[in-house]
Design a protein that fits this description.
The protein has helices at about 15-25, 30-40, 45-50, 60-65, 70-80, 105-115, 120-130, 145-155; strands spanning about 90, 95. The protein is an all-alpha fold. The longest helix has 12 residues, at about 105-115.
């Protein structure tokens, strides 16, 4: 089996955390499947932590500490190696956190509302905004969905 390099999206896992977890699991007489079922952690996630390809999330580390017979030092090491739960997402790695975007100028919102009231489609409004060089919500191009979202958020 080929070894995969750690993800560049988070800091490398502390060396030895995987061995610590694997040793504690084996001392408890648990297979990886049994531990994943007991702790409520995915099998692949547990494998990634044991092979030090990914760090545990804070919630995962707390669950593993509750299930495994670790001493205080082992618990401290496992929790120190953890990454805040909000930063991790499933098997793809880091979740893209909600980026702080600049608020949409009121004149753009009014323009969208006026064009929509005039019977134009979201796609036509997006094309008009792109032709006029108005930057999109994230600073890029306008799409029909982003125009619709801007119009809906203006109503709230």
């Amino acid at each position: 089996m080929a070894s995969h390099p750690p993800s560049p999206r988070w800091t490398p896992t502390l060396v030895g955390v995987g061995a610590l977890l694997r040793t504690a699991r084996l001392n408890a007489g648990l297979t990886r499947r049994q531990l994943s079922a007991l702790a409520g952690v995915g099998y692949g996630q547990l494998h990634g932590i044991e092979t030090e390809l990914r760090p545990p999330s804070t919630a995962t580390a707390e669950r593993l500490c509750a299930v495994l017979p670790l001493d205080d030092w082992g618990k401290a090491v496992l929790l120190a190696a953890s990454v805040p739960t909000a930063r991790l997402r499933g098997r793809r790695g880091v979740r893209h956190l909600n980026r702080q975007r600049a608020p949409l100028p009121p004149e753009v919102r009014k323009r969208i509302a006026a064009e929509r009231a005039g019977g134009r489609s979201w796609r036509a409004i997006a094309a008009t905004l792109n032709e006029a060089g108005v930057p999109g919500v994230g600073g890029g191009r306008w799409w029909s969905s982003s125009v619709a979202r801007a119009a809906v958020s203006a109503d709230q």
